[in-house]
Write a structure and sequence with these properties.
Blueprint (H helix, E strand, L loop, with lengths): L1 H6 L4 H12 L13 H23 L14 E2 L4 E2 L2 E2 L4 E2 L3 E3 L4 E2 L3 E3 L4 E2 L3 E3 L4 E8 L4 E8 L4 E8 L4 E8 L4 E2 L3 E3 L4 E8 L4 E8 L4 E8 L4 E8 L4 E2 L3 E3 L4 E8 L22 E2 L2 H7 L1
Parallel strand pairs: 1-5, 2-6, 3-7, 4-8, 5-9, 6-10, 7-10, 8-11, 9-11, 10-12, 11-13, 12-14, 12-15, 13-16, 14-17, 15-17, 16-18, 17-19, 18-20, 18-21, 19-22, 22-23
Amino acid sequence: MAGLADDWAANRQTCVEVLCAYLRMPYEPDPGPGVPEPQRLAFMITREVRRTVIRVMTAHLRKDSVTSWQGLNFDFTGAVFDGADFSGTQFSGGTVLLEGAQFCDGEVSFEGAEFTGATVYLRGARFAGGRVTFSGAHFRGGAVSFRNAEFSGGSVSFSGAELTGGTLSFGGARFSGAAVSFRVAEFSGSQVNFSGAHFSGGEVGFGGAEFSGGEVSFGGAEFSGGDVYFDDARFSGSEVSFGGAQFTGGNVDLSGAGEWSFPPVYPWADAPPPGVKLPVRHQQQRA
């Protein structure tokens, strides 16, 4: 099918849709070692075919591809991922649908991927286990949406990601048990939205992140549990707002920020609510 897509440009999109349809077929995660051998073998065969389909796709989305599939549409709605390598891929146009996708085991890597002008929807996606990484990814345009996604287990990393254009939305997302990292990420031109997100457990870290431009909004977010920290983060130019956010539990720690020349906007007038820690120098200035 991939060979047909390469040779038949007029119907390349149709061929890609067939490959995507296979990945959307019902699929159960690894049943474990205690099942009968025929069942275990059937699972391993299905998993290998699925991973081969993904390898073929990603090979056509990298710089060195002889025939590029960039700009095509990819529909992975509801697909289950228990391991996939999208590292170094380039999404320079088209639409990638991952709505309702499940990341439940293994490692799914978008490390070093470039999103320039593409529309990527992960709305309602479920991150329940394994490791998903966008480390070193570049978001230079288009729209990437994690709206209403659920982060309940495993880890999701945006460490070292560069957000210099377009939009990245976590509106209404639920952070209840996963470890989510934006360590040393650069927010310099994008509109990043956590409006209405729920932080009730797990850990969300912005350690060493650089907020130098663009807008980052936590407006209307609910912080009721877990830990959100900004150790060594640099607030030097982005418009970061917690306007309308509710703080009823958990910890939001900004006390270790590395730079505070362009501090966030808060929804309180005097002392911060319990669980919120600001830099000591900021508290002294207010006093």
